[in-house]
Amino acid sequence: MTAFINILLSLSLLFGGVLSQADFVFHPEKYNAVTLEATDLPAPVTQPQADTFVRLSEVNMHYRVYGSGKAPLILVHGNGGSVNSLQEAAAYLANDFTVYVPESRCHGESSDPGEITYSLMAKDLKEFIETLGLEKPVVMGHSDGAINAITLAAEYPDVPRAIIACGANSHPKTFKPYFPIGVAVRNLFKKDKLNDLMLMLPDFTPEYLAQITCPAYIVSGQHDILWVSDTVYIAEHIPHSDMAVLRGETHSSYMSQNGKKAYVLAHTWLGGQGMIGSPGNEQKKRPASA
User: Fold this and answer.
1) Residues whose CB is less than 8 angstroms from the CB of residue 20 and which lie 6 or more positions away in sequence, other chains included
2) CA distance 246 to 226
3) Residues 163/140, Cβ–Cβ less than 8 Å
4) In-domain check, residue 277
5) What share of the chain is helix, strand, coil (3-state, %, to 5)?
6) CB 222 within 8 A of CB 247
7) Minimal CA–CA distance to 266: which of 135, 123, 76, 128?
8) How many helices (H) and strands (E) does the chain have?
9) Cis peptide leading into 202, omega within 30 of 0?
10) Number of domains the chain contains
11) Residue 92 near residue 263, CB atoms below 8 Å
12) CATH number reported for the structural domain that contains residue 140 in this entry
């Protein structure tokens, strides 16, 4: 009986997802459709200010810093990513913020403590923020990084000033079917806990999302790997959140593939929230090193 119920639920999510994609074409205003125009941008920061490590309770975390003297923004990469994944976005965002780009546990040069979940990565982010003495940073994440931002805001609501979640799914069942099938096939040939993570988590219930109290911007691409109905679901259950579905964009086309568009997205929304131009908070406790 449980298996039958799960099949019905999956079919319902699939049918609802297909309908939402069609509905977006005819009623884009319902989804706050946005077109990103990356023109007349300020010059990007050419080099990171720092490229170093910080020791957390379970992870030796590698990170870079772009810019200085402004309010902090943490930029979180997606599954399988690194500090290089969002470096163009970081370079442009450094015009408005001091941008911190950490590598999640089990990624890049950060250490691998053996286990990875979104809750553990959110705990790492909280420790990263506390250890560097960053006061109320904006947290902007892409894909798994967006899930990490949501998890951080739900489980530690007093930590972030605001979150921008780009391409987050609420559950593996809300992916368009081709994506988890591809991940599962890859896992057959080479078992990977990063693949397992995407196939098993997250599970954002309405009650979980309702714990978020900071301003939140929930964003996806029109041609994302998740249905636009899932973006609506996440935004509807986070109190006082904003939502946008980006015309013509895919899962990564406006983030890791085009940092200029990521800058425009963040600059526009954060400017509207009055979060650009406020005084920064530098590392109060100590410079972090390995």
Assistant:
1) 227, 228, 229, 232
2) 13
3) yes
4) no
5) 40, 20, 40
6) yes
7) 76
8) 9, 9
9) yes
10) 1
11) yes
12) 3.40.50.1820
Q: Measuring CA to CA, which residue among 121, 135, 279 is closest to residue 194?
A: 121
What are the backbone angles phi and psi of residue 170, rounded to the nearest 5°? Answer: -90, -20
Range of the domain at 210: 2-272
Q: CB of 109 within 8 A of CB of 80?
A: no
Cα–Cα dist 12/67, whole Å: 47
Query: Is there a domain that residue 54 lies in?
Result: yes
DSSP strand E in 48-108: where? 50-55, 60-66, 72-76, 98-102
What is residue 202's DSSP assignment?
Answer: -
pLDDT in single tens digits along all 290 residues of the chain: 555 555 555 666 676 788 999 999 999 999 999 999 999 999 999 899 999 999 999 999 999 999 999 999 999 999 999 999 999 999 999 999 999 999 999 999 999 999 999 999 999 999 999 999 999 999 999 999 999 999 999 999 999 999 999 999 999 999 999 999 999 999 999 999 999 999 999 999 999 999 999 999 999 999 999 999 999 999 999 998 999 999 999 999 999 999 999 999 999 999 999 999 644 443 333 333 33
Residues 6+ apart with CB under 8 A from 84: none
Q: Sign of torsion, CA 210 212 217 223? A: negative
Residue 59 falls within a domain, yes or no? yes
Does a structural domain hold residue 282?
Answer: no
Q: Residue type for 65, please?
A: V
Instruction: Please name the residue ranges forming H helices in the chain.
Output: 2-26, 87-93, 118-132, 144-155, 178-189, 193-200, 206-209, 228-237, 259-272
